[in-house]
Amino acid sequence: MEDLKYWLALSQFYKFGPVKFKKIKKYFPNMEAAFKAPYEEYLRAGIDEKTAEEFTIFKHQVEPDRLLENLNKEKIKVLTIDDPAYPKLLKQIYDAPLLIYYRGDLKAFSEFALAIVGTRKYTHYGQQVTEKITRDLVANGLTIVSGLALGVDAIAHSAAVEAGGKTIAVLGCGIDRQSIYPSQNRYLADKIEAHGGIILTEYPLGAMPLKQNFPQRNRLISGLSLGTLVIEAGEKSGSIITAMHALEQNRDVFAIPGSIYSAYSAGTNSLIKLGAKLVSGAGDILESLDLTQAVAYTENKKIIPESNEEGLILSKLNYEPVHIDELVRLTKLDASIINSTLTMMEMKGMIKNLGGMQYVLAR
Fold first, then answer.
1. 95-127: burial string, b at 16+ Cβ within 10 Å, e else
2. What is the DSSP letter of 142?
3. Closest among 342, 335, 359, 332 to 307, alpha carbons compared
4. 148 near 188, Cβ under 8 Å?
């Protein structure tokens, strides 16, 4: 996609957050036009004078082709908000990022996802609860979302992987290997990806883990999830910010109660007083979200091929566009058979034709 390099170029400018980026997208016919536009056009698009002036200078330092090359070198992919594979739950929030960088398997994006967050300095109780509840949620078909931080986040990611489940790690920095923060969790990031999970961020390659990035990042953790579970947290912690984002996004907030004498449970106990749902196990969450049938529902949604040709084609498709010529090469089927089978599969709702002879799975 030729326009992608201009999406990347625009996303490099730190003042183009979701709201300004949305104005640009609405005003210009495409991102190439947006990137190459003169100063006056940015003003007409609704960008304030200072930001427009700064970007007009900034863009001369950016090489869109180089950005695309660097992305490919790092084996990092990008989803724009227009992409059919963009996560549905995240798209529903007010300030959804127009561009997300990711590594991993898009199948990990799920309608059945729960955020698990908590303190970096956890207790033995916090560890036990996180491991047990994560395993039980995974066994019931849920994807676990967290922030790859030390402590509860890392425990939740690890427990999900060990239980054979999918997990999504959302970072407040770039996801190129050198930028992953904390550096101690680079191996965990690789493990998540190797086991069918996803590492993602809205920040470009090389973006540092600046303090202000993490409250922003937290809205994505809650935005990707049906609800947010806080295990252990102090009264003024990032986990509480994530819970507040969840409430603003009209998502459920759950909290594990703890000792009134423990500073690590002060935040969770306060959330419960404010109306968060007190839970003591995965069953409480599944019941509250009416997800007791999640496993059966997920199984029913699997696409079942009705012929050998369909099965062969489905095995080569995913949620990223595949050209028909590539399908011919991969399946070794005759082009006329591929054409007729694809037409039938599209009519059955199994696949989508994105135009330009590009195909993806329908769901």
1. bbbbbbbbbbbbebbbebbbbbbbbbebbebbb
2. P
3. 342
4. yes
How many C-beta atoms surround the C-beta of residue 297 within 10 A? 13
Instruction: Report pLDDT digits (tens) over 245-261.
Output: 998 998 999 999 989 99
Please give the Cα distance from 180 to 172 (Å, whole number).
9
Q: Which fold would CATH assign to domain 104-297? A: Rossmann fold (3.40.50)
| Both tokens assigned to 304 | 């079942």
More confident residue, 361 or 114: 114
pTM of the model: 0.78
CA distance 139 to 153: 19
Task: Enter the CATH code of domain 308-361.
Answer: 1.10.10.10
- Locate the domains of the chain by residue range: 1-73, 104-297, 308-361
Determine the Cα angle at 138 with ends 134 and 143, to 5°.
Answer: 95
Using a 10 angstrom Cβ sphere, with 0-12 exposed, 13-18 middle and 19 or more buried, the burial of residue 186 is middle
Averaged pLDDT of the chain: 89
Task: Write the pLDDT tens digit of every residue in 310-343.
Answer: 888 988 887 678 899 999 999 989 888 998 899 8
The whole-number average pLDDT for the span 254-275 is 91
How confident is the model at residue 297, as a pLDDT? 47
pLDDT at position 279 is 92
CA gap 219, 185 in Å, rounded = 21
69, 137, 171 from 223: Cα distances, Å: 30, 18, 14
